[in-house]
Amino acid sequence: MRMPAAQSGPFGGRAWRRFRRNRAAAASAAGLTIIAAACAAGATAWRDRAARADLSRARTPPSRVDPFGTDLLGRSLAVRCVVGGAVSMGVGLSAAVFAVVLGLAWGSLAALGGGRIDAAMMRVVDIIYGLPYLLIAILLKVGLDGLLRTQAGLSAGGSEVAVLILAIAGVSWLTMARIVRAAVLSLNAQPFVEAARALGASPWRVWRAHILPNLAGPVAVYATLTVPQAMLQESFLSFLGLGIQPPLPSWGTLAAEGVAAINPVESFWWMLAFPCGLLSLTLLGLNFLGEGLRDALDPRG
Amino acid sequence: MPTERANAVPAASCEIAPLLRVEDLCVDVAGEWGTVRVVDEVRFEIGRGECLALVGESGCGKSLTALALMSLLPSAARVAGGRIVLNGIDLLSRPESERRAVRGRRMAMIFQEPATALNPLMTAGAQVAEALAVHCPEAARTRRARREAVLAMLERVRLTDPAACIDRYPHQLSGGQRQRVMIAIALAGGADLLIADEPTTALDVTVEAEILSLLGELRRTAGLALLFITHDLDVVSVVADRVAVIYAGRIVEQGPSDTVFSRPLHPYTSGLVACVPRIDPGDGPTGQAGRRAPLPQIEGVVAQPGARPGGCRFHPRCSLGRDDRQCREEEPGVTRHPGGREARCWKVEP
Predict the structure, then answer these.
(1) What is the interface pTM, i.e. ipTM, of the complex?
(2) Which structural domain range is residue A64 located in?
(3) What is the enclosing helix (H) or strand (E) of B194?
């Protein structure tokens, strides 16, 4: 076998080529990058414009001046969608990051602790899993809200977003914990992990150098699938009025405003269609991306 | 069976204080039906530069003995008694941190299947470098120093073209190369004792011969002591000075490998020796030319740990002890015999 080493590692050329062949995944990756870049750029440039109201132009359908139309207060929906996209994706991504880190730590500690520690830790996961997530999210929000405001001294808006991120993360880490625990248990039984212990490596070194890299596959896949989940939860909570508060836009609050504008006299379809359309496209893209990653990184493939 | 031992070190290398002394080691395993003793009062010694082979069928406890020596027992198993004295220190009385310091530095282990015993996501060079980093961190400060140290280790295990192998992943190496890399990793800490758990079982015969020759050379040049666990008697006769035969968790015979196989004391050992197939198709085992007799077997199956027979554990399968009252009811103790041999059998004359 004379393949150059760089191309034949497990994350090397082979996986990348498999990923590119999955057209849905590749297209999603490209599309998501565009949306994310646009939202990031727009959010920084148009932060104030999102709240700029012009009542004379309220409720106008899409036109050249306002490509997505305007809302009840005459604010440009396009600008609000872009800023809202940044908020939604930012919250979704942050919550997913927290969830991944917490799930990784919890699952690893449970699997490596073994015995009673494992049983206790997974019992906690099972209990939280069984509770209705909305209830937990609300409880977390109420509990953390006061805490963050007094202890961390964040501004009202900042603490709101932080609490929302933590509340969403607080329900999203469970699946990751279970997956990581199963993966670590199976890796622990592998001969090369035993061989690493046999050469005298400390438990931390064994985890960092041998177990963690082998976890990268399943963790990457489920992390990518956690982001749309978190975004959907943010949208749902914001839709219910429990998440992002106005005037800060998010796709969820924009959808709520769109729904509130529904009436039998006049149709303001653009207020509902654009935020929901963007949200759906993003979620779909993330799901394709996650599945594409899973297929590409599957070592049996 | 070949009688020459080209890779053996003369017996005079055994010194007064053995490198490793295992006294009455017992290992219990907790199962669904309670605790079972799978390693029962195992006792042996290995001197510096000496090779002891531990021979037995699958499931007789040899791998668990090795794992107990390295303090790597799985969570369901624990040491229930005995002492493991390495260089005069009883390892079992020491805390886990000291035992971990011993692993790799004083005592190292290589495993059966090199394809799975190497991390598939790390290059061979990275894995040897890790072993070096664990035991000699000062030697690994710069990248060049690390690379040279890794190259030196790979040359020591006689790997052809070590510079190319450094950047290869395990699946790009052959079985023999992987096993050499594993030996390099194991010896990176400068251990005096290498425990080899069936290291050549997964290799084909020519590669096996190379690995055995490498181990012999390491014993000669570095004074490496070897605990060689195997179920292959031919390998034992080539590589080992002394052999201990395990049956159902107990050592039933121990002694210099040439005499144990040429004149076995215990019926189980004679049975094992008789089971080894001969290659010449012309003669049957009875020496009759032109007839192929069926392979001899030892009747019965190995007693399961939870359901061991009373008295001598081997008696239901033993032609001498099957109908003997003493063999059925009393467990034999260890009797010593001339030539440094021991056996656990009522039927052997002292």
Answers:
(1) 0.78
(2) 5-297
(3) strand B193-197
